[in-house]
Amino acid sequence: MRRLSLMGVLVLGACTDAKFAPETLVKDLRVLSIQAEPPEVGPGEVSRLSVLKSDAAPGVPTSVIWVGCEPDPQDLGQSACNDAEILLRPTQITDYPPGLQLLGFGLSAGYRSTTGVFDVLPSADPVRQAGSVGQVLSLVIGEDVDPLATGDKLRGYFERIEQKVTPVVVALTRVLVSEKPPAERNRNPGIVSLAIEGARHPVNGRVGVLPGQRVSLAVTVPDDVRQTYTVKLSTGDVTRTEKVVGAWYSSHGRFSAERFDTETGETVSFIAPGSTELPEDPVPERRQGTLWLVVRDDRGGQSFERYPFFVCDPSLPNPVVQSITPPASADGQVVVTGENLSAVLDVVVGDAALGRGSFNQTSQTYVGDVPSLPSGSYPVTVRGRNCGVQTTTLRYVAP
Hints:
By secondary structure, the chain is mainly beta. It folds into 3 domains: 175 residues, no CATH class; 119 residues, Sandwich (Immunoglobulin-like); 79 residues, Sandwich (Immunoglobulin-like), CATH 2.60.40.10. The protein is 5% helix and 44% strand. The chain is built from 3 helices and 29 strands. A hairpin with a 4-residue loop joins β28 and β29. The longest helix is centred in the middle third of the chain and has 12 residues. The protein starts with 8 loop residues before the first strand and ends with a strand. The N terminus is likely disordered.
């Protein structure tokens, strides 16, 4: 059996033209983060897995297949997820080696060890408290996958991967299983808010930047994010405090740093596409792109967010909002009327933008999902595609 000594990402059948591009620039099929929530569980408890990925190209379908392995508390090296042959010949997954299970399809899945995972160990064995790793493979493939696929149909997907007909990114992550009390287990670091040029970015909002503009990004994480924990060594117990770092990625544009320390309040500058100093990074055809933020601790905890961005056109008119109407039904949308609404970037209610906001050409209105807000009355602000911000006298009343 050939075993993997490090967790990482294997790409089969996927190419990139970004040979000299920074590591933060994402132009092809790629996994940026996998979060297990929570990252540490007790035997038989469920951890919810979710993936942060980029797609191979606009309009090209991608699907996610999740595979998990039972922890190996005796450290015998027998986990099927440790076998490099599984990565090179994924058709072996459909043979279901001992301890391996298909977890599901889609952007998320659940991982659960057996309740008796530690039954092979004496009751006082320190591994029960230190924990044993359950490994998870996330296979992001460049085609649509039937979520009900089994047998030959499922094997067909893996055969096309082996033959390099279908591109795939295989990402490995882990869930720690232990018998620690819940209060002592690792938690994901979390992301509280993003500030752009010192101003808090609205929840669900798009990031508006001018061509080539340099803007500062500051990330706020929870106050208690850096957990203190104990490591048992042969020389005695050692108390440590987690380090939590952040990383930015983008579909276009550049960053002043690839990593930042969340403890120091360090800011990172984003240089928007269209800078005259970087002719190899022009404004995207539709002026749209994505920023991805990943925050990691040094025990495997991760959190992530996506922030769509728009490269503003200063020649566009200022949108004018005249009314904002709550949804007529539970599954309806907020309706905004006014002038030049095709030039709206976001309509912000309080500190949250309307979700999935868009201009309706037929009705000449701007519509979006109700933001999650406590009951109350909130001011309405309009952010334009020219990067202008218009305050209004309107109020939105959340029931």
